[in-house]
Design goal:
single chain; 368 residues; Udp-n-acetylmuramoylalanyl-d-glutamate--2,6- Diaminopimelate Ligase, Chain: A, domain 1; Alpha-Beta Plaits; 3 domains; six-stranded mixed β-sheet; 12 helices; 17 strands; 29% helix
């Protein structure tokens, strides 16, 4: 089995097109045509993680944070850490792949896994993306509608939330006059024709537009199909920022702080007090999500957990919401769980998947 088969499965779950535009997700180095041996999952790729992957004979490494984020102007194999990592990767013929902000923004991705780790239920996005969906409308003879719809579904159209093969059909009449150069499927060129037709409507992801168009043109019976594509502005159910949910029961602030320390395996963390004595509704954002503070307040959350919070953001939150900075690594690492599960379910019988159990965080805490 080739590495690209696993990449295809990952990108179906977390499409690269939903990633932050300045991110560098996807293939970092290597050959996706190589036959896979074992898979190694890690938040970051440092020398310790790379050594573990090689020791376990893994030739496909999946990271959350991209190995190559900024442009590389040179490779110095004498003392530059990034260059030395790349040298080792190439020497051992490894392939490295990153699934970063596309995993952050996907449903059941990083923030959803963080929410599950602290026991939240009724989980949804804290802020949904404006839709990346488009709608295709086309017109077909009645006996071709189901055939073309089936092909459009196979090409990826018709997915809404947890439902697939979604469409709408309306009966009507279409008219046309074919020129001398035309070759109509129905009727005669030069004549004014009226045909019983079906209008069909399906939605699809914007990054899939070429595939949908090509499928329509391939299977539509008309010489020149009539179709429209609309941009949708409604919120997207599959992609967004952060997550929000509810605890099974209310906790006091101190109980909640202890709960977070235990469930996120923390030695310590920073926080500021909120205005409520009891915590029930909680917002989270894996990684750097302080910009979602206003959204957490608007959603009437009792607490908000994220990382990389600046001093003045703590000031803005004080006495309004219990705001916790639990650490960048600590709020993202559970996102690897969904990748592990995804690969286990799809490839577990064919390949071994190894999850890095050691911290790759560069941040250490001094305790005297």
């Amino acid at each position: 089995m080739q590495i690209r088969e696993i990449i295809k499965t990952i990108e179906k779950f977390a499409p690269p097109k939903i990633a932050w535009e300045k991110d560098n997700v996807g293939l970092q180095v290597g050959n996706p045509d190589n036959e896979i041996k074992k898979v190694f999952l890690t938040l970051d790729l440092n020398h310790q993680a790379l050594k573990t992957a090689i020791k376990n004979k893994c030739n496909f490494i999946i990271t959350h944070h991209p190995l190559i984020f900024n442009s590389l102007k040179k490779l110095n194999f004498s003392n530059d850490e990034k260059s030395l990592l790349l040298q080792t990767i190439i020497k051992h013929d490894l392939t490295v792949f990153s699934v970063h902000t596309n995993l952050d923004f996907a449903k059941d991705g990083v923030s959803f896994q963080l929410a599950k780790q602290i026991g939240l239920s009724k989980i949804d996005f804290l802020e949904k993306n404006i839709s990346s969906k488009l709608k295709l409308v086309t017109f077909l003879p009645e006996n071709y509608a189901d055939i073309v719809l089936s092909e459009l579904f196979n090409a990826g159209a018709g997915n809404i939330g947890e439902y697939s093969n979604c469409s709408f059909k309306t009966n009507g009449k279409g008219s046309f006059i074919g020129s001398d150069k035309s070759n109509p499927k129905i009727g005669t060129k030069g004549n004014f024709e009226i045909v019983n037709e079906v209008r069909i409507e399906v939605v699809f992801d914007s990054w899939n537009i070429k595939k949908i168009e090509n499928t329509l043109l391939k299977f539509h019976p008309y010489e020149t199909p009539a179709f429209d594509i609309y941009k949708l502005e409604n919120p997207n159910d599959k992609y967004g920022f952060g997550a929000v949910g509810e605890l099974p029961k209310s906790m006091s602030s101190n109980e909640f702080l202890a709960h977070i320390k235990k469930n996120l395996l923390l030695d310590n963390f920073r926080y500021t007090i909120g205005r409520r004595k009891n915590i029930k509704k909680v917002a989270v954002c894996g990684g750097s999500g302080a910009e979602l503070l206003a959204r957490a307040l608007t959603n009437n959350c009792d607490a908000f957990i994220t990382s990389d919070i600046k001093y003045h953001v703590f000031q803005d939150a004080e006495n309004k919401i219990l705001l916790i900075d639990a650490g960048h690594f600590e709020t993202e690492v559970f996102g690897l769980n969904v990748l592990f599960k995804l690969l286990k379910e799809n490839f577990g019988e064919k390949i071994e998947i190894i999850l890095n159990k050691k911290s790759t965080s560069p941040i250490k805490f001094f305790n005297n």
